[in-house]
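Possible regression after last week's pipeline update?

I re-ran a chain I had predicted before the update to compare outputs. Posting the input and the new output here so someone can diff against the archived version. Not blocking, just want to make sure nothing changed silently.
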Amino acid sequence: MQLITAAVSYQSPGLGADLSIVRGESMDPTLKSGDIILVARKVTEPREGIFVVRLERFLLVKRLQVYPGQRIEVYSDNLAYTPFALDVRDPPEDFPVIGRVLCSIHSHI
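New output (post-update):
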């Protein structure tokens, strides 16, 4: 699972954006552990792209793909992780979309 922690928090008044640090390897090679991501918290409608979502008690960075028939596939860029699908008509109560990842800064330290 791709966990993030909000080590740095910056909020933009208009966009509602936060900076967060990526933890884990499920989004390799796109995002690596230690990368900083800018998350638009006002963009919570599921659509194609990389989003921060909550599943149970974890924050995850995942790629979402929307399909006809109200189905969303949630997957990692690292092929070692298995994708899963959600029915938009009956989503889990604990699966809110926190925001869309707008950009990242790769850490090379």
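Follow-up from reviewer: compared with the archived run. The mean pLDDT is 83. Marking as no regression found.
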